[in-house]
Structures are given as structure tokens and as C-alpha cells.
Amino acid sequence: MTYIYPSFTFVSFLLFSYLFSHFTYILKYEKKIIKRILSSNSLHVVHNFSFVKNDIERNIIKDDKNDENIDNINKQYMSDEEKIEKKEKIEKNEKIEKNENGDHPQLFQHNYNNLNIRHNNNQMLDFLSSVQKKESRRFYSINLKEKNFRWSMILSIGSKKKDLELGILTNSNITGLYCSYNYKDNDELKNLKYDITLSEDLKYVECKSIMCDNVEHSSPCLPLENYFKLINDYKIRKRSCQNKFCDYVNNMNFLNMIDKLNDRNLSICSFNTTINNEQIKGFYFKDSFFLYKKIKTSFLYFACITESDPLHFNNKLSGFIGLANYINDKEKYHNQNKKIYSTILYSFIYKSISKKNIFSLCFKQGGGFITFGGYDQNVLTKKEAPLSKIQLYSIDKNTNKKYVQQLNSVDVYDLLWIHYYAKNKSYYSLFLKNVTATMDQNKMNSVINAEAKVDSYNYFLSFPADITIKLKNFVHDKCPDTDQFNDCSNLIEKGLIKLKNKNIKDFPKIELLFEEGTVIVHPEDYIIHESDGVYRVLINSSGELKLGIPFFLNKYLIFDNENERLENIINNITKSHDIKNINLYLNNIEENIIKIKNEGQSIIDDVFLAFNGSISHLSLYSYLYDHNINVGLECLNFIYEHSYIEEEKVIEGDAKDEEKIVDITKFDSDIMYYIVKKFKETYEENYNLTVKDLENIILEYKEKIYEESIKLYKEKYNDGIKIYNTFLDISHFYYDGKKMKFLKKQKNDSIQNYNEYINAHTDVEFYELKYHLLSKKIKGHPSVLFWSDAINEIHIKDKTIITSVDSIKLTNTGHQHIIGILGLNRDGELVIQGIRNEVKLFINQSCIINNGIYCIGHIILLQGRMKLLNKTFYVTEIMHPPRNYDDEKNEEDIFYDFENENEKKEIGEYEIIVRNNDKKQNWIIMHDIYLDNPSTFEILEKMFSLYVNTYPDNELPIGFILMGDFISLKFDYNKNFNDLYIKGFEKLSVLLISKFKLILQNCYLIFIPGKNDPCACKNSIPKMPILPYYIKKFEQNIQSFFSCKKKIIFATNPCRIRHFNKKMIFFRQDILNDLIWSSSINATDDNKNNLQDILISTIVGQSHIYPIPHDNRILKRYSSFLFLYPLPNFICISDNTCNSFISYASDNTSDSIISNSDLSFTKKKTFTVYNVLQHDAKRYVVPI
């Protein structure tokens, strides 16, 4: 035993050393990701304005020199006094640490020190904490003042640090000041003015300098003395602001357009512009300014106002700060390597650590704040159960390009990103679609569809005059009856109401709809208490669409100039299409881990060892532990795998070195939240979750999210399915030779004349249309070139040159390829016809006849030679026109078209959501369902039971396609046939109602007539639906139990269906038999037995579902409705004269699937399943 104990000690020492070194290694390489993660800031609704003033020095980069070299304006440096102060502070701290630790001060050279430095083994927590403190504030904040509904900030300007209160404007890039030059003592407003003679840092911008050339300026150039005189003559109108609003608000127009001022010329190195419609003039100067009186910087383009119209400011403001993000082209060119811009916004931005061109505004009555370089997390309050939204898809109005917005922070409130409509302008604007006033169940909606300026200088929500009147009338209608306490008679004209006994919150709210979502302006944001019992309604018409103070009030607006978008944060914003993925471990990981380790009853150490110190696993475990969810390592990893989104490399800040490239991992925090919710609802507190439990919870969660995500689409587009009636839903079309595309015919004339025209030109138009359609199809083939296009083709040696019959050279006895219509001349001889000419054909036994059947009226390709002696074309090969899938799939479809591009886009999004949730979307197809045969109902019951009994584990089909015949007898008008047919459908209704209500409630039932089913024009194609007389009892029975009329459809034959973006056609007809009886040329002997290839080649080659001669078997007026160009995704025919098959139209598995079944459902119990989303078809047999 004496030798075993030291051995055990030695092994323990080695194990401890390995774990210690491994832990240190993990922490070292986790540093990058943690640093990146903890540098993000969450966004919350503002509830208070507490700021940490002592953090300002490290959040703002400091200048100390009065250097006039503009290249150094934005560099970081520190004064000598500050350096000495900082050095003394460091030495003092080291001395304190030395006294506390004996003569060995504790050294912190790295954030990932050895474990034995701290006795409580919380080195990982120290590392996280240090990084968090370092990275948490990369921006800075400044308090705002509010008086008379003008928000302002104090700026200390010049070397004397003159405090000036400047209004916040978002509709200008100019920062203008009221100036004075040797002011007079009796000037009562001298304290509002900035004396340009006092600052030692002030410099005038020369009129011919590059700096003057960079900025927007006017001409001609005037001497400085002229401006001094203008300054002395300039009078500021003192405002009377006894109430909430100044006196000038009463004189503002509420329904009329304000007259615009005439431009006046002035000097270069000066400005001549407008703030809204008030003109201001003056000159530029450079001067220093200070933030919090201690952080010094400079701005090159302060604007001294020498002339102006009466500006709408109160008697406390000395000017304004313009925060527009405008940079002209010259400015961009000269500032490629310098951070010098004409807007002061950049001077504020470059004093932040992040240097990100982002600023935020919060306006509240009595104050507010502004941040530069980011947004302030410390002033925000978190929700108990935070939601997150990291990605949002939206459309850029200028480029129509989809834009993916993404954050890597915890967003605990609903966000709405809205893209700027006008970019790089001296104002911010958004595209406003419409405005709605709502109260209870009443609504007043007005379409806008115009650019709206975001204008903090404008007191009002300014709309066009007609909309303003409607809005004010709507608000007026909600006023209480006029009496001695309440009076709304001045609302329309003056915007004033008198209220004593009505709550402002009872008035309507105004919803502003943008492309990306809706912003709600509450009544307390646009109805403002002005004086005793008097309120002002901030809605007017100023001749320009503007979103003024009510758009800002009580909201947190982030102007993200990096991505040219505005974020609106407020509790009741509505939005759509948000994907909720998040870095879960950003959320208070430090506090969570401290609590877990102190309690000592967790497996957090096992988690650390099992997953190699993965911060993501640790934070995931801490989140579950914090919510009292008991999981083992297996369950933890299961949750990790199902909540993992993706990994991404990002660059921190604007650094270029490799050390700043970090990895982050994204999770779906909603899954964890749902697990917590279900655990507390379902299980006891000490229950340990199993993997099986988690599988059920996550499956239920995904189904819930799926239903929520498709709710809007489902309300608008139901199941994304459109079923076309051949006679009602498809339009006639023609080929436009100039545009080289097919266009729908417009019914410009009366319906009667339109019908007569269609009937009179049916044959001619059909063949002309067919020729253009198939010619267009051939031209898409890469190996084919028409002779008319060959002149401009350089490499024609690899092409097959095709000549039309009208262009054929009879004297050319060489090898030729010609295209035309197969026909018969007056002598009954085969010819190939064009529009003007026809050529006789001679086909001998050696001629190669490719797969297919060739009938009179088919467009065909021939290869052979002309013989001058008898002017006959001797054919060596015959084929149907070829097609190219890659070319055809891009063709515009005139049969399955959408109402507009927006519908097409949204249907595509709908399909993506359904596909991403692994939904099958199966269609079940069968034919010859003899309802007069009792065994049919036995088979139907068995098949329906297979789906119903396995639901919800297995999904129900989206629908059943039931194709005729629905009776085994041949059609007859006698009473016996009628009774059998009616009773068959009646019996089917009883079966569905009694046993398969689930099918009726959730699935489509589409009935397509066959040749023996009673319908109008039953012997012609296309067929009309089954006559109502025969299915009346069936429909009455169904509707007496369910209102499912939209899902039970008696369709035409053929029937076209569009499901999402998949296009299908179903046709019940013995096509092959009709083709053989009508054929003029058949395939060679080697291919005659391959009926499948013959049928497919003929249908695809002629791009027609029923390619027989144009005779009385086809309703000629509707024959063009049977074309298949481009080919639908799924062509399902039920032809009892051809063998069963499922085949692709080409070698490409994305190409059209063509399916045929010769097996009767009643006799063979077979049915076909087509999966829309997977584009796959299979055939099954009902097991009886």
C-alpha cells in the first residue's frame, strides 16, 4: 500500500494538469467569439433616461490640440496633463494591490490567466466580465431638452466653450447658428447669438479653396465685410411661447400648400438653402466644439445665418444641428482618405469607439436623448420572456432587390426596419403606402404610395389636403357632443379641440403602412395638451408629405446610415416575415454561470468537459437551469442540434487584421422558450426530461410556428392552389411578332363581336399560333438555327440550319432541313405547307421516322433533298420539333399566370415556408371509379382509412383527383342510367359524411368527367363539368353537414391546377387510340411496340395535350387552350389504350413528369401520388 498511494497521487497530479491546460487552451481560443458576442447591444423600449456620465471619457475619442491641419481633426490623442493624471492613477492602484497581496502585486497581463491566480476558480467568469465591460459601450449618449415641442442639445462652441442650445433637425445637413459681430449691449437676444470674434479656433473657409468646393454653396464671392454688415442688420424675431406651442403655430396653414420662396443669389463659400420652406442665407466657418465641455473636436462647416425668413424656433434656441447623411460627389472624391464632411453628423460619429454611422433619437415630452455610434442598452428595460428577430427580408424600393437585414444581438422588443426611399439626400425619407385611422371596428383608409420625409422640424403629420380632411373628420366624429365642457368646432380649421371629460386615449390611432410593416401613432402622440383643457391635433396639409413630431414622439428611432434604413422600436408595431434566430448565450451569461456554480447542484462542470468548454453549450445549459429545466448531457446536445441555426465569420469594427475576424453561432431562442413553457405546463418540477419528451415538444413547436408563419398567406391565398375552368379562366392569346412574345387578347369590343371574331378565324388562327409557338420552341434548342437568323451567326458549322417552307430554294438540290405543317393537297398527296407555299413529299421505306405519330395538321421537321424534275422533296428523316428544357423553363406561362408580380413573389415565399417545414403536399389521382359497383366503395373506404387512421402522425393529402368514368355503363339518357348515376354520387356523399369528415374538412375533392359521364358537348374536347342535375343530391348532402364548397370542385376535362408555383394538367381521354386512327405517318417498325415513347414524343413534340387533327372532336374555339407550352410540371393522363408509365420529358429530373395509368381504380385498385414540393410521382395499390 505504501507504493500505491504515491502512484495515485502522481496520476491525480497529471490528470489535474491536463484538465487545467486544456481549460486554458479552450478559453484562449474562445476569446475571439466571446469578445464579438458580448460587444453586441440589445434594443429595448425606453422607459427612463439615466446615463452613466463617468463613462464618457472612454466612450469618446479625445482631441487636445488646436491644430489647424484638417488631416488631424479626427485622430485620437491625449493631453499631457491627462497622461500624467492617468499614470498617477495606475501607480496608485498598483500600490493598493501590493499592500493587499503582500509584496507581490497581482498582475493581469491577459484576460485568460491561469486558474491558480484566483482562489474561487471563476477565471472564466472574470474573462467574460472583463470583455463585457470593455465592449459594452462603443457609443455615447447626450441628453436632449424639450421646450415648445422643439428638442435640442447643448453644444459648447469655440475655444471659450460658449454653450448654445441647438435644435435637432433631420431634414437638413447644415448646422446653422445665429451669429453676432461686435454686438451691442442693448441687444436683448445677444445671449442667443454666437460671437464669431471671440474663439481662437475660428477660421473662415476661403471661397476658392478645396474645402469650399466640397460643400454646397452659392455664388458670387463677396468680401467678408459684407457679411459683417449683414450680421449686424440681421434681426431674430422673438417668439411668444406662453403655451406648449409658440404663437407661430396658430398662423400655420392646416389645409393649404405653403407658398415657396424665390431663390436669391449670394456668394460662394456661403449657403443659400431652405429649412422646409423658410429660406436661410449665410457663410461657413470652421471652429472647435466640445462634448460635455471636455471632449474637443472641430467642424469645418458651421453656418453663420446672416439672412432668413422667420424660422419656427422658440426663444431659447441659438440655431440648429442638421443630422442628414448627405455627401456630394466632390466631397466623396476629396475625402477618400480623410474623415472630413460637410455634415456635423460625422464629427459626432467619429468621436465614438465604434465609428459606425448610426445615431438614435428618443423624443419624449420634457426631454429625451440622442446616441452616436450605436444605441444605448443601459437605459432600456428587458422583457421577462424576450423575443428576438435577427433577420428580416425586405425589398429595396430603388433597386427592387431583396435585402437581408441581420443583427447579432438580443432584440427583446419588436423591431421594424424601414429602408430609406431617397438615398444620399439632405433629408431622410420613407416610402409610405397608405394611412389608416382606426377606432374600435371603424376604419378610414387612404392610399398614399409616395415618398414621405422624416422631419423633426415639422410639428405635424402632413398629408395631402384630401387625406388630411378625411383624417380630421374621422377624429372629429369621435369627439363628444359640443357643450360648455367640450368643443371640437375648431378642429378642422385650426386643429384645436376643447376637452374636459374625455380621455385622449379614446380617440383613433393612426397606422402608417410601409413596405416592411406598420408604425402606429397613438392619439397621445398626435393630440397634445397645450393649455387648460385645450388640445392641438398635429395633423395638417403643407403641400408636402412629411412625418413630423408625432412620428418621433414616444418612440426610439435608430437611423442606420450604414445600411440606409431606419428602425422604429415601439410596443405595438406590426410586422411580417421575421425569422427569430439569436445568439442565446449573449443573455446574461455571466450572472447565470455565477448563480449555477454557487448553488453547486448542477452538471455544469460535466457540460464543460463533455463539450470541450463550448460557450454555446454552457450558456444553453445555464438558460435551462435558470428556468428549472432538468436535462442530462444527451438531452442538452439534442436541444443544441435542433436550435442551432448557423455559424458565421464577422469582422469586428472596421479593423483589417486577422485577429479581428471572429466566429459566432446563431440559435433559435424561441425553441428554448417553448421548451420552458411546455415543461412548466406539462411536467412536475423535479421531472428529468428525456429525448423522447423533447422530440414531442419540438415537433409540436415546429407545427405551431409553421401555422403562425403561413397564417397571413393562408388567409390571402388559402392553400396556394388555383383550379382553372378551361372555359372561364383561360384567355385567348396571339403572337406579337414585334415583341416576339405571346399576349392575351383584350375584349375591347362587345362580347358578341368578340365571340363572332373568335369563331370566324378559329382554324387560321389556330395553325398560325401553333406554327409560331413551335418555331419559338425550336429556336430555344442550342443546336438549331433558323435560316433567317443564320446571316448574323458566326459559328454556323455546328448548327442545324432550318428553312421554312416559304423560304425553301427549289433550285437547291443539296441536303436541307425544312419546317412546316403536314397536310394533303387536292389530289390527296402528302405535302408540307407554309403560309404561302406547299411542297409535295415523297417518303420511301428507307426514311427514318423518329418516335411519334404524325397527323395532318402537325408541325414537323423534315430532312432530305429537292428534285427539280418533279418539284418534290424526298424525305430521309421525319421528327417532331425538338425542345430545350433550360430554355423553355424561363418562358412566360400564359395559362397559369398570376394576377401580378407581387402575388407571384408571395406564392413563392409561401412555398418556401411549407417546403422548409417538411410538408409533403401530396395529390392522389385515380380514374374509372365506378360508383354503380359496390366494390368501389369498399376500396375507397380502405384507401381513405389508410390516411385518416394514421393522422396526425402522417399528413393528409392536399387533395384527391377523381377522373371518370364514374359509371360502368355507357352513357344513355334513359331513366335507369340517370338513377344509377345519381345514386352512385349520393352513396359517395354518405360514405364521406359518416366516416371521413376529416377528408371533407381538409382535402380537395376534384371530379373530372370521362367519356361516359353526363356533360354538355360530351363527345368533344375540352369537356364541360358534369351536369348539375346528376350531382345535385351529392352537393346537398355534403353542404348540409359542411360548408366546404370551395374544396369540392366539379372541373372541366382537361383540368389545369396551379399549386404554389407547380403547374399541373389532368386529362381523361384515350389519346393513343385517337392518334392511331388519325395518323398519316407512323414510327418505324423498331419503335412501334414502344407505345409509351410514341405517346410522349407526340404530346411533347406538338406541345398539345390532345394532338389529333383539328376536326369536330375538338371544340375549335377552345383548341388553343390545350397547348402545353411551356410544359407543366406534371402531366397526368388516363389513357386505357396505352400502357402505364411515369416518365420525365427529358433526362433532367427537374423537367416535366408525364404519368399515365391504364389501370381502373375499381378493377385494379391503383392510384398515383404526386408530391408537389419534391416533384415526384409514384403508383400504389390499395391493399385489399
From TrEMBL:
Entry's Gene Ontology molecular function annotations: DNA binding
Record InterPro entries: DNA_pol_a/d/e_bsu, PEPTIDASE_A1, Peptidase_aspartic_dom_sf, POLE2
Coiled-coil regions, chain positions: 70-99
Cellular component, GO annotation: epsilon DNA polymerase complex
Nucleus is among the record's keywords: yes
Domain of life: Eukaryota
Domain Peptidase A1: 151-569
Pfam families: DNA_pol_E_B
Keywords, sorted A to Z: Coiled coil, DNA replication, DNA-binding, Membrane, Nucleus, Transmembrane, Transmembrane helix
Keyword set includes Membrane: yes
Subcellular location: Nucleus
Membrane spanning stretches: 6-27
Any one Gene Ontology BP term: DNA-templated DNA replication
Family according to the record: Belongs to the DNA polymerase epsilon subunit B family.
PANTHER family: DNA POLYMERASE EPSILON SUBUNIT 2 (PTHR12708:SF0), DNA POLYMERASE EPSILON SUBUNIT B (PTHR12708)
Protein name: DNA polymerase II subunit 2
Species, as recorded: Plasmodium falciparum (isolate NF54)
